[in-house]
Amino acid sequence: MLLTMSAERQEDTAQDDVALAASGDTRAYERLYRTHVPHIYALYLRMTANRAEAEDATQDAFVQAWRKIDSFRGDSRFSSWLHRIAVNVVLGRMRSRKREMERMRLVDPETQTATPAEHDISDLERAIAGLPERARQVFVLAGVYGYTHEQVAEALDVAVGTCKAHLHRARQMLAEQLEATT
Amino acid sequence: MNDQNDALDQALTKLDDRIEPQRDLWPGIEAKISERKGGFWQWRVAASVFAASVLVGLLIIPPDDATTTVASAVPEADEELFRYSGLDAEFVRVHQRSLDELADHLADLQPATREVVIANLKIIRASIAEINEAIEREPNNVELRQLLRMAYEQELAIVNGFRRSAPTLERTTT
Questions:
Q1: A179–B22 C-beta distance less than 8 A
Q2: Which residues of chain A are within 8 Å of residue B4 when distances are taken between CB atoms?
Q3: So what's the architecture of A8-106 in CATH?
């Protein structure tokens, strides 16, 4: 009961801060940032496997959310709304980066070995970071954060079947990797 | 394979959904949203002042300089002023031609009309100069560039609008 009330109070505080932020209060928005940044950064670190890119994308997501905060109607939790913006931001950045690399005729990021994230990570985190980019995106969104195949397919602009194939491939690679490290 | 999957699912449950960035990202975010907020309000204020000044100019500004010569009253479409607007060369050419025509035939307008035209062109040109200065301070401010384009389009609209008041102009352009 105590925990429930605490969660409700937290949500009320968040709603107050959202309203204040929507009116231009940057201090309120900073409180929202402090609360939610570990979740967004974790998502980004797993999606990008690159600390610098995860930091840049995190800043980008919170700037985008600030610009759109007027449109938050409270129909869903603020964290869910922010997460959706964050996913769109990181996928947009990754698409831009891929286009840029293709334009410059550099290596295909799909086949490029990802740089393991530079933090104290478990074997699983390291294995996720080592997945091919598209397989990693699908696995993180569907396998870690619970998005449906339909949602992931739409976000990545791929067929649902392709999404399922990537997830299967990613799980296979991760399972083998984990077995090899134990 | 099932054992492998079980091990993977087991490991997934232990993943932490919170990872703190190694550095504080807030200062960078705050700088961007403050800049954005400032830019937004500057745009709103500038747009309001601009719209109000045009309206006031059209309605109540009296002739402010009776000695202004007609030929020097119409500003030239200085190409340098267009540098931030993103307007295409065709617009710049039409704009310059319209100003040239107005300058050539301003004397044909009724005195009161002429003074209103001159006053409004001065107001708009002052707005354009201010917006250009603001863009130099905030080169990536998209709203300012939109405002600049609006100002040029407004200037052209006023010039073209008053062309209808000058029979000579009508004759020369049709």
A1: no
A2: 175-176, 178-179
A3: Orthogonal Bundle (1.10)
